[in-house]
């Protein structure tokens, strides 16, 4: 059972817009975010040119991961960005962006997150204060309601995605709807297997990672999880994807907050210290491949989990394969290969979709709104 991969070369498609509009805009944004030196400006010029000419050039042979990309990119390098699978090409763009900013090279820019300034601005912003203060009001709610609120907080936190904000306006705030809601199944799975290990394949830093951490705190504090393993990216990726540095920044932000948020931050700090909350930065987390191709060590770790929760749009693309599935293709069927129970929390920001009944899709299509790609809609899907 397979469907054709999503590609950027379809006129009018969402993926084509990412290559034609979003990537050039992102290059301009990165250039302005930090006081880059002439060598970095020249490298960014070259990448902008490569994007404009629409031919993917190889990495420099001295790059530490040249061999890995040559292998992953067999038959792809040298082609147009839009003529290879969208998932692959988009991932390669972010790798080339790090090459242009000198992230992996000896020199002053090594290890400097080109998206650091936007991430820091968001984490220090007033919206975060308001979101954290809401926890004080929620503390008085019945436990079931509080748990449901934390799950929805983690789900909708995915809307705060800085890569997406580059070309999307405010229309996402207008409507919001869950097209699939398997949350009852999710909680019964967690309770039936409690206390077990919960793995979270995290997505964005800041306003998404904070509610993810609060959900992790809830699972630990309520005895629903022995430990939570938080998979983040080993290096900056898709603008706001969380890295280990972002995990540290978010736990610090929580611990410094007043009220319930601060208490949760203190508990998370201790959970980090005693190993009940473990960040991981597996190289596969930045690979341009679907989870079906995960390496054995990652497969073994996810197999040890009572539940794996995948966050966000990109992880969903990797979970189900970034393919043009008929929308009612059953989610359990496309995730049958996954090494254990899996739940996806995702706001819809790209075309791939499974497990939605055809009637719901037809009703939403009839609105004429881009509900599959605009982040206004979301889903909670579970394969037990
Ligand atoms: O942060 P998320 O939810 O993974 O969303 C990232 C999404 O943004 C895009 O990069 C651009 O829309 C998508 O291709 C990608 O799936």
Tell me the major beta sheet.
Answer: 7 strands, mixed
The number of distinct β-strands equals 7
Count the DSSP helices. Answer: 16
Q: Could you say which structural class the secondary elements and strand pairing correspond to?
A: alpha/beta
CATH architecture of the largest domain: 3-Layer(aba) Sandwich
Bound molecules: 6-O-phosphono-beta-D-fructofuranose
Q: How many domain modules?
A: 2
Rg from Cα: 20 Å
Q: Report the CATH superfamily of the largest domain.
A: Uncharacterised protein PF01937, DUF89, domain 3
Overall, the morphology is globular
**CATH first level of the largest domain: which class?**
Alpha Beta
Your description of this structure?
This protein is of the alpha/beta class. The protein has 2 domains: 101 residues, no CATH class; 242 residues, Rossmann fold (3-Layer(aba) Sandwich). The protein is built from 16 helices and 7 strands. Strands 1-7-6-5-2-3-4 form a 7-stranded mixed β-sheet, sandwiched between helices. Strand 2, helix 10 and strand 3 form a beta-alpha-beta unit. Helix 7 runs antiparallel to helix 10 and helix 11 crosses helix 12. The protein is globular, with a radius of gyration of 20 Å. The two termini are 20 Å apart. About 2% of the residues have low confidence. The structure holds 6-O-phosphono-beta-D-fructofuranose. The site of 6-O-phosphono-beta-D-fructofuranose (F6P) has 15 residues, from helix 8 and helix 14.
